[in-house]
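WARN retry 2 of 3 for item q-0093 after timeout on previous attempt; input resubmitted unchanged.
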Amino acid sequence: MTIVAIYEHSAAGAAALEAAYTTATRESRDLLVLGTTSGSSTPGAGELETAAVTSDVETVLGGRGGWELRLVPPGEDAVGALTEHVHTLSPELVVIGTPHRSAVGKLLLGRARQRLLLEIDTPVLIVKPQRDRPL
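OK item q-0093 returned
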């Protein structure tokens, strides 16, 4: 089975990567880091984005291997593209990071995160970064 970490270049995204890596390692599962491309039609943009995300994931995970990266084109709806791809994978768990929120913001996860949580049929783990953790 596979653990999926939804990639986001942020402290919340880093927390999701770390939690997913720890869970995948502990449970002897495969780890798939899933994100979207910008959708740019500029020649070479996809390769540059893949290289940038790979570098970011390697930095967050301290160079630890044992993960696979998959970036999907966003189309008209990036959340829909991620959700559709997760459905085709049927993972054991999806891990999503969320930033710390104000008192009012705590009621809402954010539109994209809320949609992922509601539309993905598999268990979802939502994690927050440590408050003092830089990106």
